[in-house]
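Design a sequence for this backbone.
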């Protein structure tokens, strides 16, 4: 299978999967064509984030859920509490380093800048969220079927939210999660630093500020843990479309079929770009043939003369 960058617009000239009467989209983007969605450096950042997050959760929960039996079994040896603290701080340093690396990546590379701006919410994401919730809940369609407000909905069918939303490279959920990582990292790094540097914290702030740091650090950690377990894992891995797991985080690739099903607007953009490329290629070939034929006619006239 050919592996192409997701933003690539080059023409697909491979005839391996063409049938006797293929449609134009099937010729331009085959279902088995493979696009790069996450580069190796992006997958490395993602896996580092997973490792740091898991270590931080496992070594941080004992402070909040000390009586839990499974935590006592995990930290059973005499020096386990000291090791827990060092592993937690080491994972925290790893999270700080990863945040700096990602900041350099999104500001210092072309791919990183494109990725960053593609993940920034836009007005369409607000309407996508509204229409997605409306479609999934189905309340307005239920009201319409019951004969309530029929005249209004007949005049304004938009509010029935009959069709599911179509997304481009990233949907509003992915963009929200990306911003949540930025926000969560900032809160956890700042509060965790002052909890670690106790002497500095007491020199700069009164005791009640230090207590606030502890509260913020603890509840932000619980919020992040629940968001990952309940929301992120379902939307990325457990949703019926990709169950039991999306492999993008492992190999960084997505097929043309997956692109068409899950990112239809980006699929259409690639199709349109390839149509334009094919049109330009066809026009240049026609012009070249015309020039060649004119040259041959001139030679014939000269030889005839």
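Sequence:
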């Amino acid at each position: 299978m050919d592996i192409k960058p997701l933003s690539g617009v080059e023409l697909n000239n491979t005839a391996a999967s063409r049938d006797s009467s293929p449609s134009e989209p099937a010729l331009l983007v085959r279902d088995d064509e493979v696009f790069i969605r996450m580069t190796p450096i992006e997958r490395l950042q993602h896996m580092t984030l997973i490792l740091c997050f898991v270590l931080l959760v496992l070594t941080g929960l004992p402070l909040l859920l000390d009586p839990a039996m499974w935590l006592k079994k995990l930290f059973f040896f005499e020096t386990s509490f000291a090791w827990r603290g060092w592993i937690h701080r080491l994972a925290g340093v790893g999270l700080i380093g990863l945040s700096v690396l990602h900041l350099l990546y999104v500001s210092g590379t072309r791919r990183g800048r494109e990725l960053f701006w593609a993940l920034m919410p836009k007005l369409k994401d607000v309407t996508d969220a509204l229409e997605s919730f409306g479609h999934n809940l189905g309340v307005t369609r239920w009201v319409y079927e019951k004969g309530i407000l029929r005249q209004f909905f007949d005049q304004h069918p938009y509010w029935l939210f009959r069709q599911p939303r179509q997304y481009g490279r990233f949907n509003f959920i992915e963009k929200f999660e990306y911003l949540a990582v930025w926000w969560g990292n900032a809160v956890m790094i700042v509060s965790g630093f002052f909890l670690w540097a106790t002497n500095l914290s007491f020199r700069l702030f009164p005791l009640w500020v230090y207590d606030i740091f502890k509260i913020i650090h603890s509840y932000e950690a619980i919020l992040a843990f629940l968001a990952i377990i309940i929301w992120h894992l379902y939307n990325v891995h457990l949703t019926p479309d990709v169950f039991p797991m999306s492999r993008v985080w492992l190999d960084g690739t997505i097929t043309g079929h997956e692109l068409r099903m899950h990112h239809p607007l980006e699929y259409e953009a690639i199709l349109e770009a390839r149509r334009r490329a094919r049109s330009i290629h066809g026009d240049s070939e026609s012009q070249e043939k015309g020039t060649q034929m004119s040259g041959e006619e001139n030679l014939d006239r000269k030889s005839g003369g």
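The longest strand covers residues 3-5.
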